[in-house]
Write a sequence for this structure.
């Protein structure tokens, strides 16, 4: 298989892919007008020491960097909030710049970083935009639309906020404002593709490869590169410059090279997600892992309920939750945690309990609109049905009752 | 280690490996001595199917689901299957393949390394993540948990039925109103892991989600190698399928059934393709088991099972190539209709009024409606990174195949099943209420997982005929198709044959003169090392069945009575010098004299002994067609490794296939090519002894 045609095919495929990249690079200003570069405008770099700490408890300058060793603790809505804000006052035309390059060390995943600015177009009004997290310390961001990013810049600030105290000092090494340009555009896009996104419940449904509002998806770039390379190869073949077998081989290479590139991005995602998972769950037993989950509270509550309902085998439970959604996360998740109880889990009304029997239980997972317990009569009722029930366990997360009799329509209200 | 706390690690290891072993032994019993990768891949699937059937049978017998009795039963089955292996295995591997070269390694090692790196990452994440996705804990796992706790297969029913049987505490229902009717395989597989590990809550229970794609990749490797795909390209295929993001995601966010259905459908299709290309009908049984497993995995699996079963008679009946287009054309039309119909708003409106379609049994009722599927699929395949560039690779390879080999190149059963699967998905998402789930991408991407592994296989199964030297048609074909390869008129029937005769005689004369010293040396060596004549002559069939005396250097000890049995490996009749002569094919050089006499040609089907011809003529219809041309010293079959002993029907089928292919496509250029290949590789090969 490593005949001359193979070698020619590989070389031709690589060449066509290279040519495709070059053509795409040259065509980029046509496809993305914002990458047209005005040579008069140059990038502006502000070293960290140019920033003045506006909010912080302890800061100093190290070389050209600004270091915040302790953040200020404020209280917002009763919750502690660690804050640090660095500010500078440049005099620049906002519209000249499209991208922002931020170099900051010590940026923790749980920290929210914001860009604040004021301009002469709306004096006194403070604009802001959240900057996505970067693990490398250098991050690229697309500046906001010209609807708010306009006028002469009067003030620019970077704010860092988190509920937990910072583990290590924040080092602001510098901030660069980049004018429109192909390189800056690609770097910002690449930063978006390189950004680690955690596993979500929806991850099983799709993998986008970029954030939702990305101007360019990596698969699209790969496809364009591949398509142009294939077109070049087809042209070569039509002009009888290349034999069919070599063309086919080169075509295969022209697909595989961008495939590898996409796969490197995907591998990077997987590596980043693995690191995050190691941080969250590494070295833990299964119960300890559950305690770190988002619904840990629900799990504890389910375990508590199961301890009240032993033996579980013949226990039937009607689960009511204040939602009409079939795929409601909380009620379905609760059902899962309550297994192996025999659970009926549909709706938010007592009608289904017509089929209940004494000894069954009802769980109101949250206050369900219209369902009330009348302690004096020992009745649980909604607008249409009522049933005799005894409270078993009342908590903020839910209320558990034992049925004394099946539900029956309230006279005159059963339609 | 915290990871291994709160579960029985021994039980889990047994639960993972024992069914695999059972399945592998069962696969070997079914298909014979196939490549290990192929057996291991199909074996894993068979093992999982056996678990499902065992658990169902166990419950039907009213026995309690206890681990060690179940495990013991499976172990006994394994033992029985192991004992069945004593019978001599049947060799399934087709052409001998060249050994591993450094060039192979240069391609294969980085790709394999990347696959290992990827799977290592996924394995660690699988063990770390306590969270598995929505459908898993909503639809599949609850059944397994209840069955594990109760140690019996407690029935589940839709909510209405649950309410109707209010007296029963033993009837369960699920939070998703349709999930109770889902087939049992996935919860049963989970139950098996739970019973082994003695817990219903542990990340390691989901290991099969990682093993299944790996097993699918192993089987794919085995099948592609049997189809003569080179090692680097086979490795590339494995890398491509195991690098697909959504497939990786379903391996690590374990618990869904989609990945299982995709791999199972691919395995069933691969087995069928193996039968088609290698003529091994035994592989049909693997297809049937895969079809059964498809139906047990998911409701849509019933449709995919029917596709597999429908393709079986196509391969089984002779001349299926003509009939396959009867299915291919509607599949392609349906595929195009599904993609395009929803783009016209007027049609969308008209189609909505057509009402609903009730599928049989517990399958859902379908409301008929159109969706602009093309736009959404373009987004899924060309904008988002779900599949890398599979959306480019598959159409390009299939179109390239047609470009190079014509429409006949699509008559591969794997391609047919791929198109059937794709057109079914197009119909479901393009013409029914499932279109509602297309815009948000919740279901549609996952559904395409059903055909993605097969798509990679179908592409790479076409590559050998496209990229590498070989006959225009399939390299190997079932007996039923051999007769179809006979051309009514060969170029050798015309004036070309005169040119060939002249060239043969001139070249033979020149070679005899040039090689004379060498031939004399060989003759001397033969004479000195064993008693008997230097040259051996044997009656064989020549042109138009005429019997000719074919000359060879004597390579065996001289016997008074002629023995026409074919030489076998380590045949005691062969002399030491004869062994070397046979291995290098130098014993054939005296046939230059036959060529000079006009009895033979330099290139042509190898002449076989007369009694052997009679035997094969009875078994293979087209066998005697070989004698339409002069036999040759070397041939098209020989340069493809089909030389030496032909102890099985399959081997002779392959040799015959190449011989007829040579007759049909003869040209002087082809003769030159064969001579060149004979000089380069013809004297090598494991069959030369």
């Amino acid at each position: 298989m490593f005949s001359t045609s193979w070698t020619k095919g590989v070389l031709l495929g690589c060449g066509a892919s290279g040519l495709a990249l070059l053509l795409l690079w040259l065509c980029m200003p046509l496809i993305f007008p914002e990458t047209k570069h005005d040579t008069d405008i140059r990038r502006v770099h502000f070293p960290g020491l140019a920033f003045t700490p506006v909010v912080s408890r302890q800061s100093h300058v190290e070389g050209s960097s600004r270091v915040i060793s302790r953040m200020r603790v404020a209280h917002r809505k009763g919750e502690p909030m660690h804050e640090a804000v660095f500010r500078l006052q440049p005099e620049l035309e906002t519209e000249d710049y499209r991208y922002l390059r931020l170099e900051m060390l010590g940026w923790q995943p749980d920290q929210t970083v914001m860009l604040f600015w004021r301009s002469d177009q709306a004096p006194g009004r403070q604009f802001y935009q959240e900057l996505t997290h970067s693990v490398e310390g250098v991050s690229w961001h697309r500046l906001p639309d010209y609807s708010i990013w306009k006028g002469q810049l009067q003030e620019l600030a970077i704010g860092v906020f988190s509920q937990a105290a910072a583990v290590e000092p924040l080092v602001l090494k510098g901030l660069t404002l980049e004018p429109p340009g192909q390189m800056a555009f690609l770097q910002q896009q690449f930063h978006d593709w390189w950004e680690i996104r955690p596993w979500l419940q929806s991850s099983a449904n799709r993998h986008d490869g970029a954030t939702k509002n990305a101007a360019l998806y990596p698969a699209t770039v790969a496809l364009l590169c591949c398509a142009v390379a294939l077109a070049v190869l087809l042209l070569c073949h039509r002009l009888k410059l290349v034999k069919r077998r070599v063309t086919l081989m080169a075509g295969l290479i022209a697909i595989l090279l961008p495939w590898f590139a996409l796969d490197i991005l995907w591998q990077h995602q997987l590596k980043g997600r693995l690191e995050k998972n190691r941080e969250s769950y590494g070295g833990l037993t299964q119960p300890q892992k559950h305690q770190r989950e988002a619904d840990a509270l629900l799990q504890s509550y389910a375990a508590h309920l199961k301890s009240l309902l032993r033996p579980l085998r013949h226990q039937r439970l009607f689960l009511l939750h204040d939602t009409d959604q079939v795929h409601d996360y909380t009620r379905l998740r609760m059902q899962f945690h309550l297994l192996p109880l025999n659970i009926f889990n549909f709706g938010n009304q007592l009608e289904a309990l017509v089929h209940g029997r004494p000894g069954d239980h009802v769980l109101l997972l949250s206050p369900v609109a219209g369902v009330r317990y009348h302690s004096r009569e020992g009745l649980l009722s909604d607008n249409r049905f009522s049933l005799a029930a005894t409270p078993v366990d009342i908590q903020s997360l839910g209320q558990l009752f034992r049925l004394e009799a099946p539900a029956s329509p309230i006279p005159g209200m059963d339609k | 280690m915290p990871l291994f706390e709160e579960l029985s690690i021994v039980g889990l290891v047994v639960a993972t490996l024992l069914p695999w072993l059972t399945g592998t032994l069962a696969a070997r019993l079914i298909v014979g001595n196939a490549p290990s990768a192929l057996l291991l891949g199909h074996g894993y699937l068979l093992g999982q199917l056996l678990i499902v059937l065992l658990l169902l049978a166990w419950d039907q017998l009213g026995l309690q689901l206890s681990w060690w009795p179940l495990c013991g039963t499976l172990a006994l089955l394994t033992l029985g299957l192991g004992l069945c292996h004593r019978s001599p295995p049947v060799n399934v591997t087709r052409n001998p393949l060249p050994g591993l070269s450094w060039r192979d390694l240069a391609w294969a090692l980085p790709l394999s390394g990347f696959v290992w790196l990827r799977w290592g990452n996924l394995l660690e994440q699988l063990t770390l993540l306590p969270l598995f996705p929505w459908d898993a804990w909503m639809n599949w796992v609850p059944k397994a948990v209840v069955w594990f706790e109760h140690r019996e297969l407690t029935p589940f029913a839709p909510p209405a039925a649950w309410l109707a049987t209010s007296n029963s505490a033993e009837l369960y229902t699920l939070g998703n109103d349709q999930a109770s009717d889902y087939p049992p395989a996935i919860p049963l597989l989970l139950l098996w892991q739970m019973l082994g590990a003695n817990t219903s809550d542990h990340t390691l229970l989901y290991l099969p989600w990682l093993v299944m794609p790996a097993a699918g990749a192993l089987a794919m490797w085995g099948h592609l190698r049997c189809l003569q795909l080179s090692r680097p390209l086979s490795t590339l295929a494995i890398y491509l399928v195991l690098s697909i993001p959504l497939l990786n995601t379903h391996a690590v966010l374990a618990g869904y059934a989609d990945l299982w259905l995709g791999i199972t459908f691919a395995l069933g299709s691969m087995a069928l393709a193996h039968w088609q290309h290698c003529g091994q009908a035994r592989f049909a049984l693997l297809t049937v088991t895969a079809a059964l497993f498809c139906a047990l995995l998911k409701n849509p699996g019933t449709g995919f099972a029917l596709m597999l079963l429908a393709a079986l008679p196509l391969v089984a009946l002779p001349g299926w190539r003509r009939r396959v287009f009867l299915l291919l054309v509607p599949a392609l039309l349906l595929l195009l209709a599904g993609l395009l119909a929803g783009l016209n708003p007027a049609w969308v409106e008209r189609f909505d009024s057509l009402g609903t379609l009730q599928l049989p049994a517990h399958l859902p009722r379908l409301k008929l409606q159109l969706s602009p599927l093309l736009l959404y699929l373009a987004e899924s395949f060309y904008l988002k990174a779900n599949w890398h560039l599979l959306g480019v690779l598959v159409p390009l390879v299939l179109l390239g195949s047609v470009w190079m080999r014509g429409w006949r190149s699509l008559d591969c059963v794997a391609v047919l099943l791929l198109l059937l699967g794709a057109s079914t998905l197009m119909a479901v998402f393009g013409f029914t209420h499932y279109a509602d789930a297309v815009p948000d991408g919740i279901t549609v991407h996952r559904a395409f997982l059903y055909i993605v592994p097969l798509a990679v296989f179908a592409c790479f199964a076409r590559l050998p005929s496209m990229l590498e030297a070989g006959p225009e048609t399939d390299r190997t074909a079932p007996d039923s198709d051999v007769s179809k390869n006979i051309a009514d008129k060969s170029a050798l029937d015309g004036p070309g044959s005169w040119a060939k005769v002249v060239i043969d005689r001139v070249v033979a004369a020149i070679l005899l003169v040039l090689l004379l010293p060498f031939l004399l040396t060989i003759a001397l060596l033969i004479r000195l090392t064993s008693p008997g004549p230097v040259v051996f002559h044997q009656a064989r069939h020549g042109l138009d069945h005429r019997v000719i005396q074919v000359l060879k250097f004597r390579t065996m000890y001289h016997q008074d009575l002629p023995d026409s049995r074919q030489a076998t490996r380590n045949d005691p009749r062969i002399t030491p010098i004869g062994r070397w002569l046979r291995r290098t094919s130098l014993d054939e050089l005296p046939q230059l004299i036959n060529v000079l006499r006009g009895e033979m040609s330099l290139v042509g089907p190898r002449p076989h002994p007369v009694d052997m011809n009679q035997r094969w003529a009875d078994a293979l219809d087209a066998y005697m067609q070989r004698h339409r041309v002069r036999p040759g010293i070397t041939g098209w079959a020989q340069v493809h490794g089909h030389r030496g002993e032909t102890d099985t029907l399959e081997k002779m089928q392959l040799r015959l296939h190449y011989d007829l292919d040579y007759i049909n496509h003869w040209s002087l250029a082809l003769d030159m090519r064969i001579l060149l290949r004979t000089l380069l590789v013809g004297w090598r090969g494991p069959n030369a002894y």
Remarks:
- The beta strands of chain B are 356-358, 365-367, 535-541, 547-553, 601-603, 632-634.
- The mean pLDDT of chain B is 82.
- The radius of gyration of chain B is 30 Å.
